[in-house]
Amino acid sequence: CKDLDTKPYVGEVSELVYQDVNNYKEILAKLYAGLAVSGIKPKDDDVDLKNYDGGSQGYMRVYWYLQEFPTDEAVTGWGDPGLPDLHRMSWTASNQWSSAFYSRILFQAAVANEFLRETTDNKLSERGIEKTQEIQNYRAEARFIRALVYAHGIDLYGSIPLVTEKDQVGSSLPKQASRQELFTFLETELKALETELPAPKTNEYGRADRAAAWMTLAKLYLNAQVYIGQEKYSEAAEYAKKVIDAGFTLAPKYGNNFLADNDTSTETIFTINFDGNETQTWGGTTTLIHAAVGGSMNPADFGVDGGWAGFRTTKEFVGLFDDAKDTRAMFYKEGQSLEIESLTTFTDGYAISKWKNVKQDGTPGKNLTHTDTDFAVYRLADAYLMYAEAVARGGSGDATLALSLVNELRTRAQANTLTTLTLDNLLNERGRELYWEGHRRTDLIRFGKFTSGYNWAWKGGEKNGKDVEPFRSLYPIAATDLVANPSLSQNPGY
Amino acid sequence: KVTDQADGSAIPGATVLLKGGTIGTQTSLEGTYELTGIPDNAILIFSFVGMNSQEVSVGNRTTIDVALSADSRILQEVVVVGYGSQKKSDLTGAITAISSVDFVKGNVNTPEQLIAGKLAGVQITSNGGAPGSGSKIRIRGGSSLSASNDPLIVIDGIPLDNSDIKGAANPLSFINPNDIESFNVLKDASAAAIYGSRAANGVIIITTKKGHSGDKLKVNFSTLFSASQIAKKINVLNAEQFREAVNTHGTETQKALLGSANTDWQDQIYRTSFSSNNNLSLSGAVKSIPYRLSVGYNLQNGILKTSAMDRTSASLGLTPKFFKDHLKVDINVKASTTKSKFPDEGAIGSAIGYDPTQPVYMENDKFGGYYQWLNPQGNIEALAASNPLSLLRLKSNNGTLNRVIANAQFDYQFHFLPELHANWNIGIDRSSTDGKEWSSNLVSASSYTNNGSTGYYTQSRQNFTNQFFLNYVKQVDQQNFNIMVGAENQGFVRENENGTTYGNPDVAGIKSYFKTDYALLSYFGRLNYSLKDKYLATVTVRRDGSSRFAKENRWGTFPSVALAWKINKELSRDDIFSDLKLRFGWGITGQQDLSSGDYPYLNAYTPGQGLRYQLGNTFVEVLRPNAYDPNIKWEQTQSTNFGLDFGLSKQRISGSIDFYQKKTSDLINEIDVPAGSNFSNKVTTNVGTLENTGLEVVLNYTPITNDHLTWDISGNFTYNKRKITALTKVDNPNYVGVLVGGIDGGTGNYAQVHSTGYAPNSFFMYQQVYNEAGAPIEGVFVDRNQDGIISELDRYRYQAAPPRLFLGLSSQLAYKKASVGFVMRSNIGNYNFNNIYANRGSYQSITGSGNFLSNLSANVLETGFTQRTDQSILSDYYVQNASFLRMDNINFGYNLDHLFKKGKIRAQLSLVAQNVFVITKYKGLDPEIADGIDKQVYPRPRTLSLGLNLHF
Which residues contact B476 (CB under 8 A, 6 or more apart)? Predict the structure, then answer.
């Protein structure tokens, strides 16, 4: 007689999982991998989120979409549902990209919470596991990832449900935190992590250290005016400076940060890691590189087996490059027109050749379909520009240093140096330095140029661009969650 | 005079024949007859439809009165009802039985096709035309939403595992249809509740053929040879139309890509295929052991080039009796090996979209001689479809499935208490699949990079059943009691493994392994009671435990009650109704066949397989917590059935009418959970209710019956309405519902929705605006929410996939040695989303990027659409009425007995045409699509078969 207490053959019940300390790093690896890929099998198989296409639901890919498509930096001709709405800024609360990312944030938070609940001092001693520094680090990193995703949450959605390790699985409806509450939570957490995370550059590649927490804090403070209506520029400058002084150095060549061997870059602070053989996805940099290749571009030059003919840029963005010598202007123009007559025609709009699955020595990555190129969430150049901007906005800091940091970036790019820093100049500099790295939407909002005050091709669905409603500065709470969690309220305008 | 043995009434129209002679007559209205010229040693044969024939020696009598008894095969027919059997006339539930004489004829490769169109309330939709592909079976609409809607299938008492097996199209396809004696379909809860937690979608009980005691050796050999051909092609632009389209609407780059060939790609991938099916069976009895042994070899070649299946099957049945028949043993072993060649069915979609101006082959033999789209650098263009023929020739997937199902059933009638039987049935069901996949390096850009690939897959299953019941039958005066109590334990283990390795040593291979199991434990009982053979009652109860739920929710109780009244027995002198029975049934059945694994309640972690994340210099495996619902439990369906069986003129006209209502609550459903509260955005839980209401009518009529000519007509009619009555715990009018029905074109597009107040799988569309001439206006949709913009919020529910009505009509006419028959089916009120129109219905779809061209649906010539947008692809213009009438089968038979001496060998020749014609307004290839989304499908072929059957 077969009894009814069956147990999984593949996998373990949680209690057993946490009895073996060797599993802890694998759970942490899932938290990190959750930023890169959609599931737990290669090529986005066995996905975390249901009802979303595996290749399209990865954290980094969708984050990039939400940050880049509603801006001058990127357009796509693909007709995936809801995707054209991003550039024309007409998304609804049912938009699958915005909804998927919302779910991703809270999925990452829930997994981090479970890990934190199961590795408390009490639980460890109950299980007879010695609390090592390594476990301490794992816990701090899980908290960092939770803070990172909530930092994205406060930026993209404003007020979203806040879940911590105190919320048991399935027990009650997660409570929506106001932007102020989220800000306070993030500030407290990140400041605590300042001491709990390993010192800068002492953790393994791909794992967070204090500098990652500082960058997150600096960004939070820099945008405090947008988030909570308070200026925190001095704090922004203070934390950016901590990063600048932490021992990172600019890579000698700008372009090296976007290549298959960019894991060797001295400039990156926190990265989302991809590998053509080990961490295969259709999203991540695999999308970013394939999708940017089309027309007469040679896929082999990008280390891939074919282009997906999707992403280009607008002429307004091309226009930001006022110095012809600027090596950061990596446009592919052959057969491409500057004007975009039709979004669906790949050859309308310049293509961008910044991201490649090719190493510094010119050889391709391990796999021509899935890329090796890592994605830097934070790199030193961003710290330079944040410091400069915080100071320019009146934060306490060294204005001379601010100018020289910006000029350091320009010099590396072989562009002429600046003599003064203006806010307009800084926004444009961020565009030139950090384009296609997932910063643009946040930056345009901070500079008041997102919904109005600056228009670009096909913004608002019109060829020459038009203003859109101010409420578009926030994405909506996912319509599905409003039904599942009746305690939530929708962002205004949706 | 000829009378009915039961009530002494006269039988008019009965046949009286002189045995071995040509003299005969029919009885008059009063049942009398007269024959002259009958010798004394003659034997007369008395026969009437629905009655047992009688042979009477004349002797010197001049008046011979005969009382015919009702044919046990009709009213006295024994029907297997689950853990026992009942006389057909004593049934209280909605049960339909169909035996081999009424099966669909012709090239039938999977058992369920034997009954397609034959039964009311049972909808059988084949999954397409691939060899051995099975069918979706829906009984009374299906009572689940995201849990399985498949009925439980029981073979010789062993309930089967429904989950699909790689290498076999459906759980039945390993069975040789020729071994099947009968299907009994338990449709309502009162009949099915004895199967408790797995019976919510009905139960199909299959009994295989057996030998009979005292029989001499009987040999049956049948052979069937078939030719199949595609019945219709998808209407795409031909080369000339395509050239014009590109020259008018394409860019200069695109025009330059046009070729000079004139290729019909669909002609390139399809063929006329030939198949054969041979079966040999021996039955009889060796001493006191009746046996039946059969072997079959079925070779099916598909109409899509390279697709094929062959199945070798053997079955052995032994039915010995011991201790003066007190112990009956029934042993069945069925084994089969199915070898399949699965083509890359992507070739079908590729052929629809491949540029007709390009040749099949090109001179450059870098890619095996097949024409392929190349990028400017001379490599295969990554985004372009591969040459359709190359997909068939340069890839392969061959699978072998071995399956054995065996059971031994012991029925012991107690020596000291003959009213009591003990029945023990043990069975195993084992299957294993081995498959190999291969892809040449020449077939696509990625295969070129990877330098080709080879893959393997294995799958094994081991299920066992152990059941025991006691049955006590007692007649007390005019009361009859039949009591059964029993227990059953079943275990199901599944194990899969697959892997792929690449020719390029630098590209990492993929490997994945999975194993899972579940178990069921059940206790059940049934009481059948009848009073004066007029009033019948059945009460059943089953208690089921499933390992898929937590301890607290594991057990469920499933009761049922049924009452019947044989009204015809009340009528004092009945010469009209041979059967008239009113039935009422009520019961609760359950469903535990989740679509989300075997441990949905368990807080557990799953390891990643083949996916590692770089931390430092090492790649670390990942472990993920699973989303779970600790409180998940049974889905319950409560159903009520009112039925009336009737038979007139000694069953010459018979039929039944059933009205039913099924209400499913605690639907097992994958719903959005509050974000942050679980380890996914969706969790499988119990929420929502669903209703099915329907009416079934069956009518059988025998207009003519005599020794030379018999004509039977039978028809069935089913109306079913399916509606979701709740989907959320708290009613929320803003809730759109669950998007389902993924489509081709755009990533992550869904064309259907499950919404409260609507039928499941309702199409969820933008409402197209039409001009005065009735033509759709490109890109213009109705702003249904009137907010000034067209967005997702303007989508609405328009029609649904399942038919409101489905009908079956069959007829068989036999005249002397010849016979002719047909089976026709019709669905009414079913709609399809024509995905091929939607995806390829605009000039923009000529290309994605400029380095290749794609063909369009000819629909573009009607609409003139230039753009395919994220909205236009979901236009309700593409939802089309797919009601149809299909001539499934026309068969001719001819009896060749006279060719052989003295009738010792009986032979029949048959000619069968299948899928003869379809009448429909639907614009796509075939209106019959189970889920209503018409993507690329393997077309159902038109088949002509010639068969020979020999018995001796």
Answer: none
Q: What are phi and psi of B580, to 5 degrees?
A: -155, 110
Give the A:B interface size as CB pairs under 8 Å.
343
**Dihedral of the CA atoms A153, A154, A156, A158 (nearest 10)?**
120
Is residue B595 classed as helix, strand or coil in its secondary structure? coil
Contact B677 A169 (CB under 8 A): yes
- Interface contact A296-B376, CB threshold 8 A: yes
Residue among A390, A415, A369 nearest A239 (CA): A390
Of B518, B673, B749, nearest to A484 by CB-CB distance is B673
Write the DSSP string, B864-917.
Answer: ------TTGGGBGGGEEE--EEEEEEEEEEEE-GGGSGGGSSEEEEEEEEEEEE
For tokens 């600790």, what's the residue? B630
Contact check, Cβ <8 Å, A368/B466: no
Residue B459 β-bridge partners: B433, B496
Task: Compute the C-alpha angle B768/B771/B774, nearest 5°.
Answer: 85
Residues B383, A306: C-beta atoms closer than 8 Å:
yes
Q: Which of A108-122, B125-139, B822-836 has the lowest mean pLDDT?
A: B125-139
Among B840, B861, B243, B867, smallest CA distance to A341 is for: B867
Domains of chain B: residue spans and CATH: 1-71 (2.60.40.1120), 78-208 (2.170.130.10), 220-951 (2.40.170.20)
Fold of A18-274+375-484: 1.25.40
The residues, any chain, with a CB within 8 Å of residue B287's CB and separated by 6 or more, are none
Please tell me whether residue B182 adopts helix, strand or coil conformation. Answer: strand
Half-sphere exposure of B400 (CA within 13 A, CB side): 5
Structural element, H or E, at residue B656: strand B653-665
Look-up of token digits 């209401």? B693
Count of Cβ atoms closer than 10 Å to residue A380 Cβ: 27
Half-sphere exposure in the Cβ direction for B893 (13 Å, CA):
21
CA Rg, chain A, in Å? Answer: 22
| A7 contacts B513 by C-beta, under 8 angstroms | no
CB contact under 8 A, A484 and B674: yes
Could you give the count of Cα atoms lying within 13 Å of B499 in the half-sphere of its Cβ?
8
Q: Per DSSP, which regions of A33-180 are E strands?
A: 39-41, 45-47, 75-76, 161-162, 175-176
Residue position matching structure tokens 């306490």? A396
**Alpha-carbon gap, residue A203 to A270, rounded angstroms:** 11
Task: Render pLDDT for B397-407 as a digit per residue (tens, 0 to 9).
Answer: 999 999 999 99
Distance CA B232, CA B263 (A): 17
Which stretches of B203-347 are assigned E, i.e. beta strand? Answer: 203-208, 218-230, 273-286, 289-301, 308-318, 321-322, 327-341
Distance to chain A for B867, nearest Cα, Å: 9
B818, β-bridge pairs = B815, B894
Residue type, B182: S
The model's pLDDT over A283-325, given as tens digits with 9 standing for 90+, comes to: 999 999 999 999 889 999 999 988 899 999 999 999 999 999 9
DSSP letter at A27 equals: H
Q: Tens digit of pLDDT for each residue in B668-713?
A: 888 889 999 999 999 999 999 999 999 999 999 999 888 788 899 9
Instruction: Return the exposure string of B286-324: e unless at least 16 CB atoms fall within 10 Å of the residue's CB, then b.
Output: eeebbbbbbebbbbbbbbbbbbbbbbebbbbbbbbbeee
According to DSSP, the β-strands at B122-126 and B95-99 are: unpaired
Q: pTM for the whole thing?
A: 0.89
Complex ipTM > 0.85: yes
Question: Which 3 state secondary structure label does DSSP give A470?
Answer: helix
**CA B856 – CA B838 distance, rounded (Å):** 10
CA distance A301 to A365: 11
Q: Which helix (H) or strand (E) holds A18?
A: helix A14-19
